[in-house]
Write a sequence for this structure.
């Protein structure tokens, strides 16, 4: 109970701070100026930006599909479009929760299970996919922090501390994958310690997790060409962020150097690791501070709003898929329960 209260206080505090930052930026730049800047960006360039992002989203979906197909073989063959919609649903939930990178993963797992995918295989595919994505994402941000320090943009120690923290997280994630690849059963081993021996539910879960880890181990021991393809998709997908920054800045009438575009595509991303939905305020503040340091003559709020508007389209699509797909799932559950009740009545 106390932990829930503490988490609630932290979440509320961070959300208020983020909202305050956003209001300050809007007041500083002027709402009329922001709107005028967005209008100058143009509708057609915005559509082009959405299309670029949709292509990039396809790379994420393809990577996940390859991982899932490796688990299921010919037992389940979900189409690329089906996987694309499931991933968009996961994105929508992640965006609207305090856990921007992992909040939607249970939704993705649930979607697969409703498509008759074994729960262990569904969980394993999503776990591996998000682990690879987080490693690529955090590595990308760490590279941006290193570049910022080398370029002399960090006058204090804040970026250094953030970088150290991210390197620790990156090390843990990488160690997890290596441990699973060795067949060590990282999570199941942790649940085997004496402390958990008194909990019956832990014993059942441990067996289930061990089977899932074996599947992950089998994938990580597959052909090197397959692993190379998965890694390549992760690198290309995350690198699209630089392309998107170049694109937005160009249609705002500003030409960026590669270093500027790389920093603008990495450092503000730290905000998405904070426990606040979509890094509200912190995301815009990241762009504002960076643009000042780099001398980029751009409205940070307008720049971020272009990305936000793209995200709203994705969220709408994802939520629509959840509602449509979820309706069928609920109907199936109701039918199964009705059938089970009928059997019970007949037996009695």
């Amino acid at each position: 109970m106390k932990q829930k209260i503490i988490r609630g206080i932290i979440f509320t505090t961070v959300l208020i701070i983020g909202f305050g930052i956003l209001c300050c930026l809007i007041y500083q730049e002027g709402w009329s100026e922001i709107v005028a800047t967005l209008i100058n960006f143009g509708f057609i360039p915005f559509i082009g930006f959405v299309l670029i992002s949709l292509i990039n989203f396809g790379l994420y979906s393809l990577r996940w599909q390859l991982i899932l197909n490796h688990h299921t073989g010919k037992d389940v063959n979900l189409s690329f479009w089906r996987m694309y919609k499931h991933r968009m649903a996961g994105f929508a939930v992640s965006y609207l929760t305090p856990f921007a990178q992992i909040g939607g993963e249970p939704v993705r797992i649930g979607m697969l299970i409703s498509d008759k995918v074994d729960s262990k295989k569904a969980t394993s595919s999503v776990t591996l996919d998000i682990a690879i994505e987080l490693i690529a994402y955090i590595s990308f941000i760490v590279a941006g922090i290193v570049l910022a320090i080398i370029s002399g943009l960090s006058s204090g120690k804040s970026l250094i501390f953030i970088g150290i923290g991210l390197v620790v997280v990156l090390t843990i994630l990488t160690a997890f994958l290596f441990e699973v690849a060795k067949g060590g059963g990282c999570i199941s081993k942790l649940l085997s310690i004496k402390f958990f021996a008194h909990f019956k539910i832990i014993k059942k879960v441990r067996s289930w997790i061990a089977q899932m880890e074996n599947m992950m181990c089998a994938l990580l021991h597959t052909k090197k060409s397959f692993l190379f393809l998965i890694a390549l998709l992760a690198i290309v997908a995350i690198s699209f962020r630089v392309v998107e920054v170049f694109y937005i800045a160009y249609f705002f009438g500003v030409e960026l150097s590669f270093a500027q575009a790389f920093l603008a595509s990495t450092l503000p991303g730290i905000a998405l690791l904070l426990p606040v939905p979509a890094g509200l305020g912190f995301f815009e503040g990241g762009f504002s501070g960076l643009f000042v340091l780099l001398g980029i003559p751009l409205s940070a709020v307008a720049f971020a709003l272009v990305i936000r508007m793209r995200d709203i389209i994705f969220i709408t699509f994802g939520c629509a898929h959840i509602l449509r797909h979820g309706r069928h799932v609920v109907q199936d559950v109701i039918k199964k329960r009705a059938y089970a009740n009928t059997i019970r009545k007949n037996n009695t």
